[in-house]
């Protein structure tokens, strides 16, 4: 097994991915299929390992944001349906077609730029409808009417599916979500009049699929909650299904010392000991995504909370300890120790952001250790 030579690592509990997938599956109608959303290295967890577990747990396909991400998965041997949900350059469409990667289409101009004679296999397309996210997608029936004939008249283009994305499915107020649904059905009404061939539809992200399973179409796109995190506080409170977080962040004390009062810690000497204090050093810093704004947050040592003191450096930061601990003592930055827990949500709240951002920001430099059934099954050391 690959190994690594530093004392900080991410643990990804693949059994949690399975648990979350199973709970979603039970909540959905039996014929609703699932795309596991594994973009951005599976929200920072590890794309190939999460993808494998998701598919073993009943996902029917994988969805990513970029063609590069899809290529990585195809080349790693994933033969399942694979969708790129973002923009792909039209000149790269032949590569997607060759590897049977489905692309997102929403522009007439884009379709005209794809050279059908360069396609070695049919190009699979999912048409995106912008029903209110305001990001990418066809917004009007007029736009649709310019796109559909191009697809219809080109045998190398295959329209597999149509999809949209909700901006507020995790809110307490449902008026905008319902407005998006109305716009979707308006576009669908038109589409069904002009398109006779079979296509599939997908609309729901985690929030919509967990909260409104009966309203979901052929597929849902399950992202954040597959990783065991609720998309918002509202959904967390509603708890439509139980989730287990897969991600934790661990380190060890590499230095422990007792300082006299009025000693300074770290760059800028912004922290001063008030009394005699035990100070521990942890080998993780802002280059690992443990950004300077986290100064003041607490981490777990010996099942107790200890604050980060002084500025976080590139590769190290310091905490105030309640007593002396041996070098090598485990430090949990995100996760549980005994009855205490620092959740991803707590870190997100501290940073005034959303939980999605937290595992994504823990950088490539931090090895990922994959656990399944309590055993380490794989180690991904990015610094080889
Ligand atoms: N579908 C699309 C098109 C998405 O962009 C995302 C997440 C998902 C499905 C999955 O959503 P979920 O994680 O809430 O289940 N996209 C993003 C994003 O662009 N920024 O944050 C999440």
Task: Give structural notes.
- Helices cover 28% and strands 27% of the residues.
- The protein has 12 helices and 21 strands.
- α7 crosses α8.
- Bound molecules: ligand PMH.
- Residues 37, 85, 165, 205-207, 221-224, 231, 356 line the site of ligand PMH.
Present the secondary structure layout.
Blueprint: E1 9-13, H1 14-27, E2 33-37, H2 39-44, H3 47-56, E3 61-64, H4 67-75, E4 82-84, H5 93-98, E5 103-105, H6 108-113, E6 123-129, H7 141-152, E7 157-164, H8 175-194, E8 200-204, H9 206-211, E9 219-222, H10 233-238, E10 247-252, E11 255-259, E12 264-265, E13 271-272, E14 277-282, E15 298-301, E16 304-309, E17 317-321, E18 330-337, E19 340-342, H11 344-350, H12 357-361, E20 368-372, E21 375-380
Parallel strand pairs: 1-20, 2-3, 2-9, 3-4, 5-6, 6-7, 7-8, 8-9
Antiparallel strand pairs: 1-10, 10-18, 11-14, 12-13, 14-17, 15-16, 15-18, 16-17, 18-19, 20-21
The chain binds ligand PMH.
List keywords for this structure.
384 residues, TIM Barrel, 2 domains, 11-stranded mixed β-sheet, 8-stranded parallel β-sheet, elongated, binds ligand PMH
The tally of structural domains comes to 2
Shape: elongated
CATH architecture of the largest domain: Alpha-Beta Barrel
Alpha-carbon distance between the termini?
A: 13 Å
Radius of gyration: 24 Å
The percent range for strand residues is 25-35%
Q: What is the overall pLDDT average?
A: 97
- Heteromolecules bound: ligand PMH
* Beta-strand segment tally: 21
- Give unreliable regions as ranges: none
Oligomer: single chain
């Amino acid at each position: 097994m690959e190994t690594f030579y530093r004392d900080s690592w991410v643990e990804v509990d693949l059994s949690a991915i399975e648990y979350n997938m199973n709970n979603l599956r039970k909540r959905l109608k039996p014929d609703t299929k699932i795309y596991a959303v594994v973009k951005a290295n599976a929200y920072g967890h590890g794309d190939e390992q999460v993808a494998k577990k998701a598919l073993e747990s009943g996902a029917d396909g994988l969805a990513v944001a970029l063609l590069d991400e899809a290529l990585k998965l195809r080349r790693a041997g994933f033969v399942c349906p694979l969708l790129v949900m973002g923009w792909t350059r039209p000149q790269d469409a032949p590569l997607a077609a060759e590897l049977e990667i489905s692309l997102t289409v929403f522009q007439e101009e884009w379709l005209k730029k794809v050279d059908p004679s360069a396609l070695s296999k049919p190009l699979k397309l999912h048409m995106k409808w912008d029903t209110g996210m305001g990001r990418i997608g066809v917004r009007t029936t007029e736009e649709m009417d310019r796109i559909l004939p191009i697809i219809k008249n080109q045998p190398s283009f295959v329209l597999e599916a149509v999809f949209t994305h909700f901006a507020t499915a995790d809110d307490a107020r449902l008026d905008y979500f319902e407005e998006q649904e109305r716009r979707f059905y308006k576009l669908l009404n038109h589409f069904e009049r002009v398109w006779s061939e079979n296509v599939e539809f997908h609309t729901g992200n985690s929030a919509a699929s967990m909260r409104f399973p009966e309203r979901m179409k052929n597929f849902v796109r399950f992202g954040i909650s597959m990783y065991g995190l609720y998309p918002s506080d509202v959904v967390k409170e509603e708890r439509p299904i139980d989730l287990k977080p897969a991600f934790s962040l661990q380190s060890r004390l590499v230095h422990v010392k007792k300082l006299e009062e009025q000693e300074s810690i770290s760059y800028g000497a912004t922290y001063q000991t008030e009394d005699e204090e035990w100070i521990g050093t942890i080998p993780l810093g802002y280059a690992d995504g443990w950004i300077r704004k986290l100064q003041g947050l607490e981490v777990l040592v010996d099942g107790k909370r200890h604050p980060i003191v002084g500025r976080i450096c590139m590769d190290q930061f310091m905490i105030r300890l309640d007593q002396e601990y041996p070098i090598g003592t485990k430090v949990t930055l995100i996760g549980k120790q005994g009855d205490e827990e620092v959740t991803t949500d707590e870190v997100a709240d501290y940073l005034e952001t959303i939980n999605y951002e937290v595992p994504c920001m823990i950088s490539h430099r931090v090895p990922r250790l994959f656990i399944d059934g309590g055993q380490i099954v794989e180690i991904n050391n990015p610094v080889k």
